[in-house]
Amino acid sequence: MKRIVISLLLAFSAIVANAQKFDYDVNFKYLFNNGSYGMSKDMFEQSTMINSAVLTPWLGLKLDNSEDVTHRIMIGLDLRKDLGVKTKFDSATEILFYYNLEAKTDDGTFSAIVGAFPRTFSEGFYDHAFFSDHNLFNDRFFDGFYLKYRTRKFYAELGADMLSLKQTNERMRFQAMTAGDWNFAGPLSFGWGGRFYYFGESELAPNTVLYGMVNPYIKYSPKIGLDRFDLLFGWIQTYQHDLGFGDVEMPGGASLVQHISNWGLGVENTFYLGNDLMPFYSYSYNDDFYAGNLYFAKAFYHTRINEFSFYDRAEIYYSRDIASWVNVKLAFDFHFANPTKSLSFFRGWQQVLSLTFNL
Q1: What pTM was estimated for this model as a whole?
Q2: Do residues 178 and 193 touch, judged by C-beta distance below 8 A?
Q3: How far is CA 172 from CA 66, 204, 226, 260, in A?
Q4: Under a CB-based contact definition with an 8 Å cutoff, are residues 356 and 326 in contact?
Q5: Which of 28, 74, 159, 262 could form a disulfide with 60, with the two C-beta atoms 3.0–4.6 Å apart?
Q6: Which pLDDT value is given to residue 40?
Q7: Helix (H), strand (E), coil (C) string for the chain
Q8: Integer Cα distance of 28 and 139 in angstroms
Q9: C-alpha 144 chain-centroid distance
Q10: Residue 229 buriedness (CB in 10 A; 0-12 / 13-18 / 19+)
Q11: Rounded distance, CA 169 to CA 262, Å?
């Protein structure tokens, strides 16, 4: 690993020496996320804590092909430290590099990126039913490509991410994602989020699951003197096909997202009413359990089977920019679902503190 790092440093020096424009970036994130789910007996989510710091320095070359077109090649290292845990440099480091194209068109901008790059390149809205906050933090990079196009009233993105290749104990997995938003009338917009996931074979588990989720919605964002006021009315629909067992499920339900903020204080509420979005959650093939390997959202979406039920997530937060490149956020997330004979309406909560530095 030390030889690789030395080689990267030499490559950085060569880039700096020969570049028309030297480019750099520094990203740092500290996250404390404590999930307390004892009141639901840890049946859905395990009470866990993330207490980690991540540093990602970038160096590269920036070339302006013209006033409207810019090419960028970047090389970086992702360094993660789980605080309180002794971590070896080799296991905590990931090498990243990507090519990025930025181009202005007659009516908007087009962006493309390929390689191993930060998932923050994605700007679209994805409901919590797509990804959990733990997934977003632990899988901070995409290995693939992403395309974006933006005009004054329209935005669309499309990308693909290779998650793993087929090995003895590792399935071949990749995902494709799309999101967009069209402001068609005043405060009204039509938006969508979508994801296809190929949960492929491993040598020990030679079966495949095809998974798709779409979330079309209408967004209402009136200007009423607040920093943000968004109401999203949508539908979440999935298609899930286990080729090994031959099972096909198509659960779905209504979604409602409310996001209101002003002076740094905010409330975001995500409500789902429908069928169990994780019907294969308890499945396994040759002792290879699906669970969080197939489903990337919180297991609270594993609601009652074959009947409409709900899940609600309410977040209260305070977010403040200390500088244009530093943000601090304190949040409390509360989770609610249908009460049962053994579980109450309240399923647990999270305490979250984050500091983000993007130079």
Answers
A1: 0.91
A2: yes
A3: 41, 12, 46, 40
A4: yes
A5: 74
A6: 74
A7: CHHHHHHHHHHHHHHHHHCCCEEEEEEEEEEEEEEECHHHCCCCCCCCEEEEEEEEEEEEEEEECCCCEEEEEEEEEEEEEECCCCCCHHHHEEEEEEEEEEEECCCEEEEEEEEEEEHHHCCCCCCCCCCCHHHHHHCCEEEEEEEEEEECCEEEEEEEEEEECCCCCCCCEEEEEEEEEEEEECCEEEEEEEEEEEECCCCCCCCCEEEEEEEEEEEECCCCCCCEEEEEEEEEEEEEEECCCCEEECCEEEEEEEEEEECCEEEEEEEEEECCCCCCCCCEECCEECHHHHCCCCHHHCCCCCCCEEEEEEEEEEEEEEECCEEEEEEEEEEEECCCCCCCCEEEEEEEEEEEEEC
A8: 15
A9: 15
A10: middle
A11: 48
Cα–Cα distances in angstroms (integers) from residue 294 to residues 105, 143, 219, 288, 311, in the given order:
39, 18, 29, 11, 20
Q: Walk along the chain (359 residues) in steps of 10 and give the mean pLDDT of each run.
A: 55 54 92 90 82 94 89 94 77 85 94 96 97 94 97 97 89 97 97 97 91 98 96 98 94 97 97 95 89 94 84 97 94 93 88 94
**Tokens standing for residue 358:** 């993007």
Taking the C-alpha atoms of residue 106 and residue 281, their distance in angstroms, rounded to an integer, is 47
Give me 121's structure tokens. 């390149």
Beta bridge partners, 33, equal: 50, 352
Phi, psi of 214 (to 5 degrees): -130, 145
Q: Which amino acid is at 28?
A: F
Instruction: Quote the distance between the C-alpha of residue 219 and its chain's center.
Output: 20
Token pair, residue 28, equals 């740092």
Q: 67's torsion region: left (phi>0), alpha (psi -120 to 50) or beta?
A: alpha
